[in-house]
Amino acid sequence: MEFLNQEIVNKTAVLTINHPPANALAGAVISELDHMLNEIETNDQVRVIVLKGEGRFFSAGADIKEFTSIDSEKNAAELATKGQKLMDRIENFPKPIIAAIHGAALGGGLELAMSCHIRIVSETAKLGLPELSLGIIPGFAGTQRLPKYVGTAKAAEMMLTAEPVSGVDAVKIGLANIAVPEEKLLDEAMKLAKKIEMKSPSTIKAILNLLTYAKTEQFAKGVEAEAKAFGEVFQTEDATEGINAFLEKRQPNFTGK
Asked: What is the top EC class of this enzyme, as a single word (predicted)?
């Protein structure tokens, strides 16, 4: 594993994303996380997973530099679908996954966190979907999961303004379970994991399976439509301008083309 570290503590696997400087969800990171889940799923000694980020962030989003190599609507849609499949696997994973979020969970980073079963955040963390600032849209099922947690109106506000919320406010709107001082974040996540790991694995698996029944057929249609729209939007002049502006550290000039 180049971008993921694993440590087993009692019956909890602590997975750490280590892709400096921002722990961006590059294609290789997504592939490694999927591979790591394969190993954990068959490891009977692991009952709970804590997912966190190394350094300053949980994950500050997708790898924008990778976006510059995408040359077609089809490839962009395929990128979105790959990320969506990983998020769906996490959400449907038979062992609970706790996201311990510090610094920032933005864009793909928040989409990853939203797919986890439980989210613990630092009080000062920033959570948001700022894709519209880049002239694109969320592509890893963010348009479908965010309204589930915060409601349609708040989700619309967060995505259309591209402005993040703090860890404290994330709890208030239902996006996170609890907010704690950053220095206590991992301890709180491990305390929660320990409470869960003491339960019967069969009952844990049953509960997680039953929770998935809350998802409707509309969710599947929604993520399919999201991937298609991501591909279409990605080919616009505004998308090129937004991505270049981000990499050049300047304000984008969107023209609607």
From this structure: lyase
Q: Which long-range contacts (CB under 8 A, 24 or more apart) does 159-164 make?
A: 159/129, 159/131, 159/132, 160/132, 162/128, 162/129, 162/130, 162/131, 162/132, 162/133, 163/128, 163/130, 164/104, 164/106, 164/126, 164/127, 164/128, 164/130
- pLDDT tens figures, 71-121: 889 989 998 999 999 999 999 999 999 999 999 999 999 999 999 999 999
Do the domain assignments include residue 225? no
Known catalytic membership, residue 111: yes
Residue tagged active-site, from 32, 131, 188, 226: 131
Q: What is the CATH number of the domain that holds 181?
A: 3.90.226.10
Residue 220 inside a domain? The answer is no
**Any domain includes 250:** no
pTM: 0.94
Question: Which residue range is the domain that position 184 belongs to?
Answer: 4-197
Report, as ranges of residue numbers, the positions in the chain whose pLDDT lies below 70: none
**Is 131 part of the annotated catalytic residue set?**
yes
Q: Which of 111, 123, 188, 226 is catalytic?
A: 111
The answer to the question of residue 226 being in a domain is no
